[in-house]
Amino acid sequence: MTELKNDRFLRALKREPVDVTPVWIMRQAGRYLPEYRKTREKAGDFLNLCKTPELACEVTLQPLDRFDLDAAILFSDILTVPDAMGTPVEFREGEGPHITKPVRTKQDVESLIIPDPETELRYVMDGVRLIRNELNGRVPLIGFCGSPWTLATYMIEGHGSKDFVQPKRMLYENPELMHSLLEKISDSLIQYLNGQIAAGAQAVMIFDTWGGCLTSRDYIEFSLTYMEKIISALDRTHGDQYIPVIMFTKGGGQWLEAMAESGADALGLDWTINLADARSRVHDTVALQGNMDPAVLYTNPDRIRKEVQSILQSYGHGPGHVFNLGHGIHPGIDPENVAALVNAVHELSPEFHI
Questions:
Q1: What are the pLDDT digits (tens) for 226-236?
Q2: Exposure of 172 by Cβ count < 10 A (0-12 exposed, 13-18 middle, 19+ buried)?
Q3: Looking at 32, 36, 70, 154, which residue is catalytic?
Q4: Is 129 part of the annotated catalytic residue set?
Q5: In this predicted structure, what is the pLDDT of residue 94?
Q6: Which is catalytic among the residues 11, 27, 132, 279?
Q7: Residue 129 in this model has a pLDDT that exceeds 60
Q8: pLDDT tens-digit map of 17-50
Q9: What is the pLDDT of residues 248-264, one digit of tens each?
Q10: By C-alpha distance, which of 28, 94, 92 is closest to 62?
Q11: CA distances from 50 to 15, 59, 84, 128, 204 (A)
C-alpha cells in the first residue's frame, strides 16, 4: 500500500504528537454538497449509491477535493449489515430507512444469518479497496459500523424512532431474546469491521447513535458490553500498521469513565460535554474526538472561528484531540462554512501543540 502523506489523524488517535489538530466531519460526504446531490441523482436511490463501489468512492472523495480534511470516511450506511443479515432495508424519500421484515420473535432472530463480508457485503469491501487505491496515501480511510444496540433498534422497530417502544419492550419483557439478537449482530459486526480492515480501512469507528436513550444500568448491559466484545475481537494490527478504534455514543456523557475502559483508542463526544471535563475524567487514557454543535455551521465564518477557538482551548495543550462535530453535519449547511471550520482548526491549533 502507498505510504501515507498525512497521518496526523492516526497519530492523534494514538495520542502521539502532531503539528496541528486533525479534523474531519461526520457525514462529510452528504446532501449539503451539490456534487453529492448530483451523484445521488445519478445513482437513482440511496441504497444503490451505497451498493455501487464506484459511486461510493466518488462521494467519499468529494469533500476531500473541497476541504483540507485529515481523514476520509467510507461512504456507506450502518443498515447495510441488517440488510445482509436478512432484514431487507428500504430508504424512502423523506421518510428515512424502513426494515420490511422487523425482528420480533425467537424465530425471527434464529433466521438471521451472519453475513460473509466478501459475499453478502462484497460491495462494501470493494468500495474500501477502491477508495484506498484512489486516495493514494493522501489521508487515512475510516471504516465504520453501527453499534449492536443501535442496529437492533431499527431491526426491531422497523424504522427510526423517538420513543423506541418495540426495542424497549423486548429489552424489559424478554431480555434473553434481546441478548440473543445483540450477540448475533455483534458477531456480524466483528466480521464486517475485520473485513473492512483487511480491505484497507486504517481506522474504524462504532456509531452508537441510540445508546443514550437507555438507563444507566441498561446502557452498560445492552450497549457498552457488546461494543467491548466487538473491540476485543478486532484485528487491530494489519501488517505493520496499528488500527485505532473510535467509539461514539450520542448522549453518552455520563458513561465516559466506563467507555474509556472499553478498549477503544478514542471516544467521540457530542456537543453536550465539556472537553476539559471529559479529558479530566478519562485521565488522558484515550483520545477524544469532537465536539462542535453542528448548528454553529448555520452562522458565519467569524462565529465559527470563535467556536473552534473555544473548543481547542477547552481541550488544551498536548496530543489526543481530533476535531469534529458532535454529530453529523446537517443537509442545509453552506459548504463555505465547512471550509471556514476546517481552515480555522488548522490555523488556530498549532499553539496547542508547541
A1: 999 999 999 99
A2: exposed
A3: 154
A4: no
A5: 67
A6: 27
A7: yes
A8: 999 999 999 999 999 999 999 999 999 989 999 9
A9: 999 999 999 999 999 99
A10: 28
A11: 33, 10, 13, 12, 18
Q: Walk me through the domains of the chain, giving residue ranges and CATH numbers.
A: 46-291 (3.20.20.210)
Q: Which stretches of 174-245 are DSSP H helices?
A: 175-199, 216-219, 225-232
Strands 89-92 and 96-99: antiparallel
Q: Which of 294, 291, 296 is nearest to 278 (CA)?
A: 291
Dihedral sign computed on CA atoms, order 153, 154, 155, 158 = positive
Exactly one of 77, 126, 208, 265 is catalytic; name it. 77
Residue 247 backbone zone (phi > 0: left; psi -120 to 50: alpha; other: beta): beta
**pLDDT tens, position by position, 282-322:** 999 999 999 999 999 999 999 999 999 999 999 999 999 99
Contacts of 38 (CB under 8 A, 6+ apart): none
Q: Considering only CA atoms, which of 273, 274, 256, 254 is closest in space to residue 264?
A: 256
**From the CB of residue 225, how many other CB atoms can be counted at a distance below 10 Å?**
16
Place of cell 477535493: 65
Return all residues near 85 (Cβ < 8 A) that are at least 6 apart.
Answer: 112, 113, 114, 115, 184, 185, 188
Catalytic residue among 8, 11, 15, 40: 40
How much is the average pLDDT of 69-78? Answer: 97
The residues, ordered by sequence, that sit 6+ positions from 215 with a Cβ below 8 Å of its Cβ are none
Distance CA 141, CA 243 (A): 11
Q: What is the DSSP string of 304-345?
A: HHHHHHHHHHHH-SSS-EEB-BSSPPPTT--HHHHHHHHHHH
**236 labelled catalytic:** no
The predicted pLDDT at position 122 comes to 98
Whether the Cβ atoms of residue 223 and residue 148 lie closer than 8 Å to each other:
yes
Q: Is-catalytic flag, 27?
A: yes
132 is catalytic: no
> Is 92 a residue of the active site?
no
